[in-house]
Write a structure and sequence with these properties.
Elements (H helix, E strand, L loop, with lengths): L7 E6 H15 L3 E5 L1 H5 L3 H10 L4 E4 L2 H9 L6 E3 L9 H5 L3 E4 L2 H16 L8 E5 L14 H13 L4 E6 L7 H20 L6 E3 L3 H6 L7 E4 L23 E6 L2 E5 L4 E2 L5 E2 L4 E6 L16 E4 L2 E6 L7 E6 L8 E5 L9 H8 L3 H6 L6 E5 L3
Helix pairs in contact: 1-3, 6-7
The structure holds pyridoxal-5'-phosphate.
Length: 381
């Protein structure tokens, strides 16, 4: 990171991501590891992160939307991809053509996938299969086939499979992390679901329940694939646990350049509404990132940043494009690098520090980094 920072920049350390995946693969020990790169790779850049994750030993990629999956294909990534959250009127045809596994949460979606595949075959456009992975509802109250509907959905899936319309490659669900007891119940429900699928004649190659938190803490939740998001980006899925404690390195460093510096007397109001007034004569530095960059306004007067190896407090409201820090009597200059967060073992604040300041979680901090922030990739595989 010897280069001078851009005005607003997220430096993405792909070597850290590759190492995180390799480390998690060791720790978890499952046959398969799915790197979750939805939401533009949690704000880090989906395509670059997907490649780095594959280099670290991930053998699957996971996204929410079909469009995200198609984008990975268009970038030339040919690894297996699963997408699991669909528009009610989704056209599954492009996804099938692109060889994307479709997560299905209802009998209606099974029918829609089968119909799309039959159309492709009729039109002479398809050479492969239409792979689906059936999502079961096991307690989150989100999507997935719920237990009373299993028999009918599995029978339909098996019939469509026999007809050659689909292949049921996986059965999966997701846990709440509400408590060990709640997760144990979800594991039991999921295990019943696998038995019901087997009873219907389905032989899914992939069985998966755990995201980062459950993969790390609950060996029984691992089955033969884990879907890892936050952990591959080097961030802990648990509050009060650091990245280093999990053997992970944060992938994103968010930084910028000090845009202005001014010496002010005591009792100077700062930013909108003067929610802070200086206690004494001091120096203020202007940081050109605001809530349009995803910097939480809730962190006003609460977060800190690092400049020249020291940390300084945010003072006054975070505005759309900028905020102010109080650097005291330190010799901060226009153009200096200001690090909002990165790897805390290097003395800078962490994404968790910002999350705590804003009353949220590290996931939200990195995922919301906006489009005016240049992504700079280092350590490409
Ligand atoms: C986002 C997501 C994941 C990844 O979760 P992490 O906690 O970031 O590891 C896994 N599975 C599903 C279904 C998800 O929506």
């Amino acid at each position: 990171m010897a280069e001078p920072p851009a005005f607003r920049e997220a430096v993405i350390d792909l070597a850290a991501l590759t190492a995180n995946v390799a480390h998690l693969r060791e720790v978890v020990g499952t046959e398969h590891l799915m790197a979750v790169v939805k939401a533009n790779g949690y704000g880090h850049g989906a395509v670059e992160c997907a490649r780095a994750a594959l280099a670290g030993g991930a053998d699957w990629l996971g996204v929410a939307d079909l469009g995200e999956a198609v984008q990975l294909r268009e970038a030339g990534i040919d690894a297996p991809i699963l997408a699991w959250l669909h528009d009610p009127d989704a056209d599954f045809l492009p996804a099938i053509e692109a060889g994307i596994d479709i997560g299905v949460s209802s009998a209606a979606q099974l029918d829609a996938v089968a119909a799309a595949r039959r159309r492709l075959v009729t039109e002479g456009r398809l050479h492969g299969q239409a792979f689906v992975q059936v999502k079961l509802e096991t307690g989150l109250s989100r999507n997935g086939v719920s237990e009373p509907e299993w028999a009918e959905a599995f029978a339909k899936a098996r019939a469509l499979e026999r007809a050659g319309d689909i292949v049921v490659r996986g059965i999966f669900s997701h846990v709440s992390n509400a408590s060990p007891e709640d997760d144990a119940i979800a594991i039991a429900v999921f295990t019943r679901g696998l038995a019901a699928a087997a009873a219907a004649g389905l032989t899914p190659e992939l069985r998966h329940l755990a995201a980062s938190a459950a993969a790390l803490r609950i060996p029984d939740a691992r089955f033969n694939l884990v879907r890892l998001g936050i952990g591959i980006y080097g961030l802990a899925p648990f509050e009060g646990v650091t990245s280093a404690e999990l053997g992970l390195r944060p992938v994103m460093t968010l930084r910028g350049r000090v845009a202005a510096v001014r010496r002010v007397p005591a009792d100077t109001g700062i930013s909108y509404d003067y929610t802070y007034r200086t206690k004494q004569e001091t120096t203020l530095a202007l940081v050109p990132l605001g809530y349009a960059e995803g910097i939480p306004r809730h962190a006003s007067n609460r977060a800190t940043v690092a400049i020249g190896g020291r940390t300084f407090p945010v003072r006054g409201r975070v505005a759309m494009d900028q905020f102010v820090v109080d650097v005291g009597d330190h010799a901060v200059q226009v153009g200096d690098e200001v690090v909002l967060f990165g790897d805390p073992t290097t003395g800078v604040p962490s994404a968790e520090d910002w999350a705590e300041a804003a009353g949220t979680i590290n996931y939200e901090i990195v995922t919301r980094i906006g489009s005016r922030v240049r992504r700079t990739y280092v350590g490409r595989p």
